[in-house]
Amino acid sequence: PFGAATLAELPREGADWVVPQCEVDTRRDLRHHRACSIDPPGCTDVDDALSVYADGDSLQVGVHIADVSYFVREGSLLDYEARARGTTVYLVDRRLDMLPGLLSENLASLLEGRDRLAMSCVWTLDERLNVVDVWFGRSVIHSRHQMTYYQAQAIYDDAPTPPGVVAFDDTETKAVREDLKTLVAFANCVNAVRVSRGAVELESAELRFETDAQTKSPTEVIHKQEVPMMRVVAELMILANSAAAKATHRAFPGCAFLRRHAPPRADGFEELTQLAAAQGVSLDCSSGETLNASLARVAATSDADVTTLFKGLATRAMSEAQYVSSGSISPEAGFGHYGLALTYYTHFTSPIRRYADIIVHRQLIAAVEARANASGHAALEPVATHLNERNRASKHAQSRCGEIYLLWLLREKPIIEPAIVHEVRDDGVVVFLPSFHIKAPMRLTDANGCAIKELRESEFDELPSPDGTATWVQAKPCVGVEGTTAVRRTSAKGIDVLDIIRVGGDVERSYSLLQKVWVELSCRHSRTYGPKLDLRILDSAHHTGAREAVAQRSAVQASSSVPPAPASLSSVMRHVVESQSVSESDNDAFKSDVRDRTRTMHTHAKRSRRNASIAVTETLSRLTLDDASDDWSSSSSDERVVVADDDDELWIPRKAR
């Protein structure tokens, strides 16, 4: 909990606080722009909103971020508390906020239907969606709608409104759909530039659970359904982050607060290279572009779960992104973000849950107002170290909490999942579980060295919980078949194989590297070591549960209109384009429609540029694939998503976390 002295610094009006007129007078008033937030279901700490506004023959696309720095004054008790916490920690059953709930869920949050203070980044686009100007500054916005990803996707696709969501009227739905079309097209252009520069998009998993309202015990693992709109929002957030980094570094080259992701170690991909060789693919990790190409070749020749394994391992091979003050890095080493293929990157878009973003907001305001930065390099360097430690601890806590809840669920409800053989051992295999991004050993021989048969029927012992309120299940011990053995060998292609050999020398079955198998996950209880994940291999042709799981998975993949793990945002957009039957001529028609919209919409009187927010004009010529410049003054942002970092990259938003 927050201390009384800290809470005393919150606005006295409490939940009745409204934007003061003095702030309206000194900020850019963007309340006439149709701003909407797009977040996960249940999100209450709304950091960002997006807008599209037609202004004459041009369009303005805005990313509006909660102006937390207005409420959290530098040097205040609230500031010290937020800095000490460093980040909001999202656990399965609770959220440990960086800021008091009055700010994170109300006054600072960009809620629907309320005037709110924001830090805005507004790009002016020409009719071909090229960026011709970018503006940063403090603003006042009014969010029209608080949408979920699935609601926004349904509006874009002209599909039925998701259950439990109140539909807009026809006029508003059409207007929002046009805005979403512009955002999708712009995001796709930006993404194409980043992909051409070698941006790497990898994968990681996030364990989420449904829990019992009373006992808080997990009842189901939630597999997040990905829709293209998630990547559109992520792309625009990354673009804003990169623009903020460039602006602050230009103003304060010796003490800009940046997010640096160093290139991976040369030996970091050894394991991945060996696995790729097993697939007949030569892995080239010399750059992000060649790594992407190698992973694409793996995807073209492999099962989707094998591709997930490769992307997961590539993620782990990456170095950890770090907060840095630019004064601590030599120009030769560079400040870039390897995974995003960006020369400059920072965190700007989530100040409600990350203290680093508050620092960047303060620097950006100082840059816009052309005044000195209050915090120099000497003050920022220890803060960067502290925030790196807090961020690392937060990720570790979230990961461990997810693992505990998974075991909690498995002790009452075993799960059947596909797995990929990741390593072959003398007595079994190590498998990778794509649904959870977990590696775990699975013994295929008993204590006497006899080979264990694939289960055709699950067998469990029932155990009372220590408090007697529940019944736990535990897989019965497996006994190997007398006379059978497991023998490890290397195939003619150099692939590790484990043969299960019957009496007489016949090979009954084999397990090779990257082979898909079906396993049953349960929890083994131990008073000495605590709960432990227990895996049993199944006969997928005869085990009833495995057959049902295979059929269900096949049905889901066949009916899914969106690829579950697209290689890039561009591929997602290509899929959307194909599903919408958009040809080159249709694209021209879209641009013509943009021109028509900008010419027919009522133009609003231009607001004066006020003291606290001046125009930062940068000519960004030709936001196209042939643009090879790394400088914002002559190109778009040079960035791309990688889940080697935490949630700033293709963590597809976990704002509800």
Task: Please explain how this structure is put together.
There is one protein chain. The radius of gyration is 27 Å and the shape is globular. It has 16 helices and 22 strands. A five-stranded mixed beta barrel has the order 2-3-4-7-8, surrounded by five helices. A five-stranded antiparallel beta sheet has the order 15-14-13-21-22. A three-stranded antiparallel beta sheet has the order 18-19-20, with no helix packed on it. The chain has 657 residues and is an alpha+beta fold. Strand 7 and strand 8 form a beta hairpin.
Secondary structure: number of strands:
22
Q: Please tell me how large the radius of gyration is.
A: 27 Å
Flag low-confidence runs: 561-591, 597-657
Portion of residues in helices? 25-40%
Strand order of the largest sheet: 2-3-4-7-8
User: How many helices?
Assistant: 16
Largest sheet, if any?
Answer: 5 strands, mixed, barrel
Please give the alpha-carbon distance between the first and last residues.
Answer: 18 Å
How much of the sequence is in beta strands?
15-25%
What form results from the Cα inertia axes? Answer: globular
Q: Which structural class should the secondary elements be placed in? A: alpha+beta
- Mean pLDDT level: 84
